[in-house]
Amino acid sequence: MVELHEITPELVRELSDELEQDEIRSLVAAEVRSLSDQWKFSTVETMELLARCQVRAIKLENLGVSRSEVARMFDVDVRTVAKWVRSDVQIPVKGWRNG
Predict the structure, then answer these.
(1) What is the pLDDT of residues 24-50, one digit of tens each?
(2) Which residues lie closer than 8 Å to 53 by C-beta, 6 or more apart?
(3) Residue 83 gets which letter from DSSP?
(4) DSSP code of 4?
């Protein structure tokens, strides 16, 4: 507890600076939480899009479309299509968090 006679302009500035730093930390922490949520959402969206591309590429290959033609349709290289076709399709579960 600070006594009334101990309050000086320097103490007021120091306390004001500490309060400002605490507010800045709080704002930065809130922004980081928001960015983390956005990153998690975009990661799930990306995984869903990849799964959809994989499924479509597999379906096209099963219909007899060549990998080079599938690559042209998706505007990717043939190696990407080959990876899609031979990899397991992983569908993310929304709302699930690792950790």
Answers:
(1) 888 889 999 999 999 988 988 999 999
(2) 74, 84
(3) H
(4) G
Domain boundaries, the chain: 11-86
Q: Which residue has the higher pLDDT, 76 or 12?
A: 76
First to last CA, the chain: 42
The closest of 80, 64, 62 to 72, measured between CA atoms, is 80
Residue 3 tokens read as: 């006594």
CA distance linking residue 20 with residue 17, whole number of Å: 5
Q: 11: helix, coil or strand?
A: helix
- Rounded to whole angstroms, the Cα distance separating 33 from 24 reads 14
Write the pLDDT tens digit of every residue in 3-20.
Answer: 777 788 888 888 888 888
